[in-house]
Structures are given as structure tokens and as C-alpha cells.
Amino acid sequence: MQTSHSGTILSLYRMGRLIRRVEEILKDEYAQQQMRCPMHFCIGQEAGPAALAPLLQAEDYVVSHYRSHGYYLAKGAPLQAMICEFYGKASGANGGTAGSMELAHEDSRFFSGAIVGGPLAIAMGIAFALKYRNEAAIAVAVIGDGSLDEGVSYEALNLAALHGVPLLVICENNLYAAHTPAEKRTLSRSLIERAKPFGLPAVQLDGTDIAKLHSELRELVTEMRSSLSGPRFVEIETYRYCGHVGPEDDNWLGYRSVEEITAWRRRDPIVKARADARSCGIPEPVLLDLDEEIEREITAAIEKAKNDSFTRYDWSLDQVWSGTYAPVVGNFGSGSVGEFDSRQAETRLKPY
Amino acid sequence: MHETMTRESPATSATTVLSFGEAINAALRQAMELDDSVFVYGIGADGGSGIFGSTTGLVDHFGPRRVFDTPIAEQALTAMALGAAVAGLRPVLVHQRFDFMLYAADPIANWIAPWRFISGGRAKVPLTLRVIVGKGWGQGPQHSKSLHTWFAHVPGLQVVMPASPADAKGLLLSSIFSDDPTLFIEGRALYAMREAVPDQPFFIKLGEALTRRSGEDITIATFGSMIPAALQAADQLSEDGIGAEVIDLRCLMPLDSKTVIDSVRKTRRLVAIEPGWRMYGAAAEIIASVVEVLGPKLRSAPRRVTWPHAYVGASPALEEKFYPTSTDVVAACRIAMDRTSAIS
User: Where are chain A's structural domains?
Assistant: First the structure.
């Protein structure tokens, strides 16, 4: 019988392993050129989403950067719909309109996008709405260190603090904005020191230890929910093993060293999570069964995605506007048109 | 102002004479009374001047939760509107000048406009961006631009440009309660103009033009702050026995080209007027949509009346010449009416 602790450890391992294997299998499948959208794999960066997953509730919102697959799964959005989306199928999470870069699942309250800086400001607006309606939920903005090069990030941090909204900013620091290292971008070396002046409590956490990260985030999220204490900023130190975009290794660009990659791989979060599961008494056969189950789930989802129908072009063109109004306009009059006297003078402005 | 606007009226057809700014204020007040999810924010939204009177008194009535001032942070404020709309609110954000809103081009064009498409038609984005176009008293190149066509060009946005107080109220109420994102563009020059405005909330379907004056000889199609000049021109032309039909498009997106085409089918002459720049403008779009259907049937080549393709200088001498007036509209109509302009 599992203790509550070992149950948590197992669920953290499961999510971390699921994200890792989804990405690895998709990376291999990508070569078949059936998924024809740019894809930013998060292999190496699984700790953030895996640690956060058990803390997220259905009422919460997550708005993520484009390296989003892990956070999509962490929010409880369906794996099948994500993979169908990558294959451009009508059964996809976005109806087959978005691919990977703008992956979203409306019902799961998960959104993402490919323009750096946007998710933080949008999540701030969602958090504002949650506070406005006095809801207990939180909004999570997932950004990267590169996002903090954008001016809008500071506008959003300022507004979040000013309005005291329930916004959790997860800033994944993987050391590179695409291929550009921090030292080419800024003299400012600390990300958390950039959030603090606006009034956000900010902490830097290790993104190689899922269990530790989970307990640190749990304390923080619990406090956010109970005390309505306003926005928080969390930097997660993490590292991307694969290239910035696509399945290929991009180390030939020479922007990072083999030694650096090797050093991070030695601190692999999934290896650590598996070891943690073993050391808290979960037997190897249980983990092997779980691994097998994950493989079957992913393989079946890919198989279904390949066989589903593409989104219809004509249908896609009709998704731009709703053309609908709130029901309240049904009670409105039609508004008789008055006699507008066109001979009136224009506004005479004052000098201010 | 408050007395007239809060006056109870038992009959739905009752009206009160309001200025353009007061009509916007009345629309905001009614929208907020009808629906707690409507809130109004922007630089100076709760301030003494109340954004040219358009938000005056709202904070006293609804409190700082629903009406509040902001830092000068157009980009995040606009993205905030999207977030609030995604979570089910109906935000109204005010940008005091079109020029200032350009900081928000990213949230508008990259996030707000495609949001519903990206959701596969599942999402609703009920937000309204009010934006004011300055004119006069030396507003100059950074306070006077009207970039309506930039945003009408982006699929997913509704672009509304009201011309009179009654329309301002009805169109703003309809924008706020629309489930699609709307750019609501107000000509500062119109703010002092007055009209009898229905007291009760009323609905104008976005994308339906209004024929403000009927005529048989020539169609004048325009919108927003050029409507008064167009109507004045029609008055002058009627003195010469020329019947001008004045169509107020009300919205650039959706664009009711059908109403213009139906009118030109009758008059077979068209002058399109735009309160904005000439090149790649709305007047060109209106003319193209008519010519595509009625080209060979036109009696004369369609004409445009627009701002010059230049900036308005911050001097009364330059401003006076820059903005077209009814005289320019009359001149364009006379050319279109002249037999020598006839298409052979």
C-alpha cells in the first residue's frame, strides 16, 4: 500500500515521464513529415510542468510560451487532442488550426502562443478577472528568460502587483533566448531581482529535482490560494537538451558547449524522479508497468491522429468571427434614428 | 449632464438630446448597469476630465473596482483586456489617442484578432477598445492619426466608426455586448455635436450601414467624422437640383458594401470620403468593392476625398487646409456629375 508521500512521488514521476516520452516519440515521428508545424520540444525542461501539475485545479488558467507541451499536459488537457492538433486534424485541441506553437485547449483553460511576452500580459488579465469576480482560482503565466527582454513583461508585472491579482509567473530560465545567451542580451544577471522592485515576491528554484520543486511550489500556491496575497514570481533553473526548434540537434551553431550539455544531462530530472520513486519503496515492476502504459497511450494517440481527418479549409475560414452577441441585446430596442443636424460646429479643442 | 442622462423615461421611444461624448458616457453607464462583467479602464478613466466627458461620473456610480486609471502601459493593458475577456468579462479599454495605441499593435494583431480562429472557433473574445482620433489645436503628427484601415485589414477585428451621438450610443452598446473584439474609433471633432438619443439601450447590428439621406443622382459613401461634411455637401448639391444619397457605413469591418452597391446601382455615380489617409485606404476599398460589381454600368469614374498623403502640421494655417470639408466633397461630386467625366 502506498503512502500519501509515495503516491505523490509516483504521480510526479508519471507526469515527468509522460512529458519526456511524448516529446521523444514525437521527435522521432516528426521525421516522417506528417506533423508539418514548427515544434519546440521541452526535453530536459520537464520539471516545471511535472511539479506544477498536481497543484493545478480545473478552474485555474495557464497561458504558456511556445515550448508548451508539458504545461498543456500538466493542466490536464487531453494527450490525444494535442497530438491530433500537431497532425492538423479536426479532432485537434484547437480544431486543427494552430499546430504546436499556439496550442490551446479551451475547456481545460490552457492557452499558449509564439510571440514572446504575450502570455504574461494575457495571464495577468485573466488573473484580474478572477479577482474581479472573487474566484478562488489562479492564473499561471509560463514564460522563458527571453521574455524578460520584452518591455511588455515589466508592464504586466507592474499591473499584476498594482492590482494584487492571483498570478503565478513561472519563468523557465534555460539560459538561451532561442540561441542567444544571457551575456549577449543584458548586464542584469538575476531574473528574480527584476521582478522584486514591482512588489512581487520572487524565488529561484532548481528545475532538476521534481519532488523538491513540487513541494516548494505547493507551499507557494497554497499560500496564494489561502491568503489572496497577489502575484508571485518563480524562476526555474532548467535546461533544454534538444535544439531550439525542431527535432534536430542545433549544437553545430556553436552557441553552447558539449560540456555544458553533458553537465546538465547528469542532473536529469526524470532519472532523478525515477530514483526517488524507487527509494521511497515503489517496486521496479510497478514503474515498468507505468512506463509501458505511457508508451501504449502515446503510440495509440499517434496512431489515431494519423488516421483522423484533416480540418476542412472552408470550415477554417468561418472560425474568425462569432457574429454573436450577449443575450441581453435581445431586450434592447432597435433605436430610432434621430435627425442628426449636420450643420453643427466641430469640437473646439482646448490646448490640453 | 448627469440630470439629463439619468432621467427616467417610461416610453422606449423617449429621447434626450446628448452630445457625442455624453452619448458614449450614457452607453457605458447602461452597459455597466446591465452587466457586472463590463468594466472601464484606461489612462484618466476615473479622472476629473473623464476622457473628454465620456467617462465622467462613472467611478462615482460604479466604484474603483469597475472604473479605474492605469499606468501608461498600452501593450500590457490591451493584452489584459484579452485575458479578462478570455475569463468571461467584457472589458472596455480607452486609448486617448490612436497614436498611443500603436504600442498595442502586438496584442491586437498577434493575439486578440486571431484568438478565436486559433481556438478552432471555440473562444469568444468580447472586448472593446475605444480609441480617439485627435483633430485641431495643433495635435500634429503624433496626436492626430486615424489608422482605422491598419486594423480593418486584420481578420478577426470589428472596426466601428460612429458619426453621430445616437449612433455612438447604439454602436457602443452593440460593441460591448458583441462576442467579437471591437475597435471603436471616435472622432474627437464629433464630441461637441448633439442629437436626440434614445434613453433606453438599443441595438445596431455591427456591419449594417445607414442611409442618412436619399438621393437619385450620386452616392456619397463615408463614415465617422466625415458624415457632417457629407450631409452638408448633399444640402448644397440639392440647391442645384442634384440628389445625393449619403451612406454612413458605420463599420469598416464588417463592411456593408451591399448597401453602397445597391445605392450606386441606382445613381451610377460614387464619391467615397475617408477621414484618413488616401493611399491603401477605406475609400479605395469601397470604390473597389463597387467597381468589381458595377464597373461597366458607372456613368463616371468614382472619386475619393481624403486627407493628403502627408502629416497635419501643428499650426492653424496648415490644419485648415489639411482636412477636407463639405466644399471638397461638393467639388468631387460636381466632377463626378460633369458630363465630361463620363466614362465613354
Answer: 4-329
